[in-house]
Amino acid sequence: MSVTVSGPSSHAGEPSAAQLLEAGDIVGLMRACHDRRLEREGIPMVLGFVDERGPIPANTDAAQLAEGAAFADVFDRYSAAIVPWARPDDEGAIITAMQVLAYTHFAPGAAPVQDAPASASEGAAS
Amino acid sequence: MTQPTFAAQREQLRRGHFIRVVNYHSTPRGAWEELAGELAGFARDYASVTLDDLDRLFETGTWHKDKPGLIPVFYEGYRNSATVAAPLCDEFGITGWFPIATSFVDCDPEYQEAFARAHWISLVEEDTQGGRIAMNWDEVRDLSERHVVYPHTAHHEGLDTVLLDSDIEREVVESKRILEAVTGQEAPAFVWLHGSSYGQSPRHDAAVKEAGYRYQFANTMIHRVN
Fold it and tell me: Which of A47, A55, B55, B218 has its CA 20 to 30 A from that of B10?
């Protein structure tokens, strides 16, 4: 299952999400997704879902599970790169890491999640 | 109650319990082409999500369409949500989700710019050239026939500023009542300013649940409440 759309891309003259990811610039990705022009660009988000009344049945689609596992891995990497200081329940920090995930892997022009380099978080630490 | 934590978020992703959302705010006519291009790309690569689709996702735990689901959300109740965003959604066969600050719609157009500035509703130049900034109730009713319309509180408030019982009644309960009276159908969801999650204030959670909302949208997750 593709996690990328091709369409209008990053602002003219600015590096794309894929280019920032290739460079391991997770802080740059965070800046780019916070720099979305609210009056003409959407803010991509990936949201979890939970039923407060009881358990949700297990997802039975292998592709969706694989994509979720890949998202979980990059969520951990981006969290370590940009919000290592956060409390486990710091909602703002969670949202920031999830926004980078969404901007990088499903916004228009984003990079396929399987292309995320394992060393991406290392570049952001500097 | 599920509080937002890194562990909860990771677990939801690993379970395949996630969905894509794109949050929009003012969608001015001057940016029509850019928005059209973005929505066209989403329409091509993702599947629209109706309220029934979301219900089914929660009932089964598995997304049921060939393409991944995508929920475009147009916040606040801007007039241009009805005159720009909704027509584009219609053109591309997308179900739009429209959280509306009901008192913004109710406000006399003469004072809507001041309302917006007083309540963290961002404006672009096109919004400040005179005339109505918010939707009117006819537009809300019309939208609700093809899209999903629900309260974003009455005054675009967060749970950190809605403190008294009377505040909660106005922002959580009355906003639902007003919207349902206009649309003649259930307002199925609620969202606080800042997208705060369910599970952080028992008093506010109880108000959302007792008001009868089916879902609370947050910036971390979607909670099924009733």
Answer: B55
